[in-house]
């Protein structure tokens, strides 16, 4: 298999698939580090629990991606997802803001939804690549993760309805 270390060429869809999977793995491992901090910063018990629930899910998603990469003869690590770095930094800035609890929670939800939308797009893309490349089992696993991300986004939207109203008072 082609080594996907920084600077290696991406010559075909399979190479791009592997590169994108490594990127997602990096994103998920960064999120595993960030979610406990977001949970600690949340004032609303339901939001705090939502971040903790998503932490367990994120660990499982990282394991799924790692298993796919291993099956392809590739290492999960070695790449840094720059997009997730930026999204995590945005969340860190919100954690540090001096704001009333409801307003901070509204900001944490916004940061969380940006992450979810990025992940939905990333999983949708690699799911499509897996299908085109004939990796039906991979596509099914990636679709599971994509659906979990969509469900998390919906949960955040539901929480935002109440929290945003409280933040506007």
From TrEMBL:
InterPro entries the record matches: DUF892_YciF-like (IPR010287), Ferritin-like (IPR012347), Ferritin-like_SF (IPR009078), YciF (IPR047114)
Domain of life: Bacteria
Gene3D superfamilies: 1.20.1260.10
Coiled coil stretches, renumbered: none
SUPFAM superfamilies (alphabetical): Ferritin-like
PANTHER family named among the record's database cross-references: PROTEIN YCIF
UniProt name for this protein: YciE/YciF family protein
UniProt source species: Deinococcus ruber
């Amino acid at each position: 298999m082609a080594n996907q270390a920084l600077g290696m060429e991406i010559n075909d869809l399979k190479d791009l698939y592997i590169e994108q999977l490594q990127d997602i793995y990096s994103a998920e491992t960064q999120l595993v580090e960030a979610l406990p901090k977001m949970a600690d910063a949340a004032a609303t018990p339901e939001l705090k629990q939502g971040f903790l629930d998503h932490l367990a899910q994120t660990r499982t998603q990282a394991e799924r991606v790692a298993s796919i990469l291993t099956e392809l003869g590739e290492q999960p690590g070695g790449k840094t997802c720059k997009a997730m770095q930026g999204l995590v930094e945005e969340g860190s800035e919100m954690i540090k803001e001096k704001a009333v609890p409801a307003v901070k929670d509204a900001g944490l939800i916004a940061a969380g939804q940006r992450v979810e939308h990025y992940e939905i797009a990333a999983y949708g893309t690699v799911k499509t690549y897996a299908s085109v490349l004939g990796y039906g089992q991979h596509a099914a696993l990636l679709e599971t993760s994509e659906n979990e991300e969509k469900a998390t986004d919906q949960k955040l939207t539901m929480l935002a309805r109440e929290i945003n109203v409280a933040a506007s008072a």
